[in-house]
Design goal:
This protein is an alpha+beta fold. It is 29% helix and 38% strand. The longest helix is centred in the N-terminal third of the chain and has 13 residues, at 7-19.
Length: 142
Amino acid sequence: MPASTSPAELYRHSLRLLLDKDIAAWVDLWSERGVMEFPFAPPGLPRRLEGRDAVAGYLRDYPDHIDLHDFPDLRIHETTDPATIVVEMRGVGRLVKTGAPFDMTYVAVVEVHDGRFASYRDYWNPLAAGDLTAQFAGSVVR
């Protein structure tokens, strides 16, 4: 995406890529030194991923675990820093292994530089993920 792309535009585009299960294109939206953090990560899952390669390794099998259908209730809040947005949303779909419904609420603080994700703090609730956390932990590159 062009460097002139706003953080909100980049984020919306990234959601379309996730729905299309295009993880490679989603990872390409990241800065080479981008950092993804999960402040509420349970034991067995990383709290911090440093660099595009680490993000790619973490998400490479995501579509094997979650079949995302939509991101309803998307709200993107601009901040006093034009490079930073706060996002509230839900991700809905199904768990691939069991077919059970997936419905997770997220809050993310996202920083964009030169049209790429530089920092992404993902505040998801691992308690709401249930069995998914254990499934996903087995495939994560640490």
